[in-house]
Amino acid sequence: MTDMEKLFAEVEALRPFMVETLSRLVEIPAVSPLDGGQGEAAKAAWLSDLIEELDLGKIGRYDAPDDDAPGGFRPNLVLSVAGGRAVGRLALVTHLDVVPEGNRALWETDPFKAVVREGRIYGRGSCDNGQELTASLCAALALKKAGLTPSREVLLCFVADEERGSTKGIRHLLKEGFFRSDDLVVVPDGGNEKGDFIEVAEKSVLWLQFRVKGRQVHASRPDLGLNACRVANAFAVELDGALHRVFPDVDDLFIPSRSTFEPTKRLLNVANVNTVPGEEVFCIDCRVLPAVSLDEVLKVIKVIMTETERKTGATIGLEVLERSDAAAPTPAEAPVVTALSEALREVYRFEPLVGGIGGATCAACFRQAGIPAVVWAQEAECAHMPNEYAVIDHLVSEAKVFALLMARP
Ligand SMILES: [Zn+2]
User: Fold this and answer.
1) Is position 162 annotated as part of the catalytic site?
2) Is the previous residue joined to 360 through a cis bond, with omega within 30 degrees of 0?
3) For range 226-247, the mean pLDDT
4) Domain containing 370 — which CATH number?
5) Mean pLDDT of the region 387-404
6) I need a labelling partner for 213 at 20 to 30 A (CA). Which of 42, 222, 260, 310 fits?
7) Separation of CA 153 and ligand 1 centre (Å)
8) Residue 397 belongs to what domain range?
9) Pairing mode of beta strands 275-276, 373-375
10) What is the pLDDT of residue 290?
11) Which of 10, 97, 199, 279 is catalytic?
12) Using CA atoms, how far apart are residues 95 and 254, in angstroms rounded to an integer?
């Protein structure tokens, strides 16, 4: 038996342990205090005890102060497994926190009671991000059981606060200067059911809200008012056309390959049919290719706003609800992309796709700090949904990928 066959056999043998571990994780809710939860302290304490019991390496604690959380902190754990002399360290970053269960009536089982059924584990956080947390931990355990030393130091980072902006989580660790530019960073927190997509780039995100003000009157006397609904409709169509016309750039790294500008939310204006609305509020969601500056996008929007105001007599207010300027993509030839691609070929026997998405994940924080990072996972598309589940076969395959990443030079 080769070392790698031995390693895979150890991963397979850990299947029941993985199911058990992920089930326990699901049963310790770790919802953000901002969403009415208790934070991640209890889950971190349980995980820390488990790691000690397994004797996998050194555990570091990097608590971020948080007055809203019980105990006044949010826990970040880093398990460091000593390795050989290969360049850089391998960091696998998963998050401890989960989103609230949402409407309980939509759940077929208790969201915080793990139910194992037909090859799946149901429960909140089973897929996002418990599956990958468990897979990374068990990969390190499999190496130990196979008597193998990682080729480089391995850092398993279990972080807080991913679902609410990461300031008490990965951003805290980055601010403390914990990571280095030659670290190989994998953020297994998003992917597809096949597991063949490596995300190396994200678009910029811009969420805008427009408030069009006219004059409200009875619908039988529109001549006395200024119909904000009509102005908003024409304005929205004008914006839509102009943005697509001015920013036609194509980058085949991304799916979709162009910038997107989508009219989305519209607030209720008047409750009855026979009133001309005096105010109309609507939003657009822009996902913009990194090569296009968001300032340029805003400039085009402002020209159309001013023009519409001049032509109609309405006033238009603009509020930026969210803005995230994309960092430079992780190069397709970065060591972390090469290493992950090789591991995927070996475990799944397919050629992975390398590309970009609409944004925005934890990996963006690394890229903004100048550290190349990739997002990869093999998971069902059920994060944040009722009846969230992890597929046990995916969990085991992910553990094999992580084990290979650790073992290979
Ligand atoms: Zn997640």
Assistant:
1) yes
2) yes
3) 98
4) 3.40.630.10
5) 98
6) 260
7) 24
8) 3-202+327-407
9) unpaired
10) 92
11) 97
12) 25
Asked if 27 and 66 sit in the same domain, the reply is yes
Distance 383 CA to ligand 1 centre (A): 7
Q: What is the distance in A from the centroid of ligand 1 to the CA of 275?
A: 45
Residue 152 in tokens: 């480089």
How many angstroms separate the alpha carbon of residue 94 from the centre of ligand 1? 8
Q: Dump strand ranges (E) for 236-343.
A: 260-266, 275-276, 279-288, 315-324
Instruction: State in Å: Cα 163 to ligand 1 middle.
Output: 7
Instruction: Work out the widest C-alpha separation in the chain, in whole angstroms.
Output: 87
**Is residue 190 domain-shared with residue 284, that is, in the same domain?**
no
Same domain (yes/no): 195, 89: yes
Q: Exposed, middle or buried: residue 32 (CB in 10 Å: 0-12, 13-18, 19+)? A: buried
**If you ran DSSP here, which 8-state letter would residue 327 be given?**
P
Q: Which residues face 284 on adjacent strands?
A: 208, 263
pLDDT, one tens digit per residue, over 165-221 is 899 999 999 999 999 999 999 999 999 999 999 999 999 999 999 999 999 999 999
Active site residue 10: no
307, 324, 341: which is the final residue of a domain?
324
CB 155 within 8 A of CB 180: no
> Rounded to the nearest whole angstrom, what is the distance from the C-alpha of residue 338 to the centroid of ligand 1?
24
Question: Does the pLDDT of residue 164 top 90, yes or no?
Answer: no
The vertex-324 CA angle with 171 and 294, nearest 5°, equals 150
pLDDT tens digits, residue range 49-59? 999 999 999 99
Measured in Å, residue 364 CA sits from the centre of ligand 1 at 13
Catalytic residue among 128, 162, 163, 251: 162
Is residue 308 domain-shared with residue 221, that is, in the same domain? yes
Distance 70 CA to ligand 1 centre (A): 22
Q: Are residues 122 and 61 located together in one domain of the fold?
A: yes
Q: What gap in Å lies between CA 247 and CA 231, rounded to an integer?
A: 24
CATH of the domain at 214: 3.30.70.360
Q: Are residues 91 and 148 in the same domain?
A: yes
Structurally, the chain folds into a number of domains equal to 2
Same domain, 229 and 183: no
Average pLDDT of the residues in 298-316: 98
Q: Which residue, among 120, 110, 202, has the nearest Cα to 382 in the 3D structure?
A: 120
Distance CA 158, CA 273 (A): 54
Residue 189 and residue 292 share a domain = no
d(CA 193, ligand 1 centre) in Å: 15
Task: List the beta bridge partners of residue 389.
Answer: 122
